[in-house]
Amino acid sequence: MSSFSDGGFEIRREPERDSKAGGYGFGLWIHTGGGHYKHLPISKADVEIIRREAGRALKELNDERR
């Protein structure tokens, strides 16, 4: 599945969502089909969790191929 197919997603930096306390804002855009997207505001911590989980899943895949 690519980020352009139904169910695909994209993470974008959204400076306008930065908090006054110094937090960084991002948006998770999920493609729902027909050129439509759902938007979820997320934090830097959320992006880091997604990155960690993606890395874990890819490592798991590489371990299976050995």
SSE inventory with pairings:
Blueprint: E1 9-13, E2 25-33, E3 36-43, H1 44-65
If you had to describe this structure to a student in words, what would you say it looks like?
The chain has 66 residues and is an alpha+beta fold. The chain has one domain (9-65). The protein has one helix at 44-65, and strands at 9-13, 25-33, 36-43. Strands 1-2-3 form a 3-stranded antiparallel sheet. A hairpin with a 2-residue loop joins strand 2 (25-33) and strand 3. It is flat, with a radius of gyration of 15 Å. The mean pLDDT is 91. Residues 1-21 are annotated as: Disordered.
Task: Provide a concise account of the structure shown.
The chain is built from one helix and three strands, in the order E-E-E-H. It is of the alpha+beta class and 66 residues long.
Structural descriptors:
66 residues, alpha+beta, three-stranded antiparallel beta sheet, 33% helix
Number of strand segments: 3
Physical arrangement of strands within the biggest beta sheet: 1-2-3
- Overall, the morphology is flat
Order of helices and strands: EEEH
Question: For the report, how would you describe the main beta sheet?
Answer: 3 strands, antiparallel
Q: Decide which structural class fits the backbone.
A: alpha+beta
Helix share of residues?
25-40%
Number of helices: 1
The assembly state of the depicted protein chains is single chain
C-alpha-based Rg, rounded: 15 Å
Distance between the termini: 24 Å
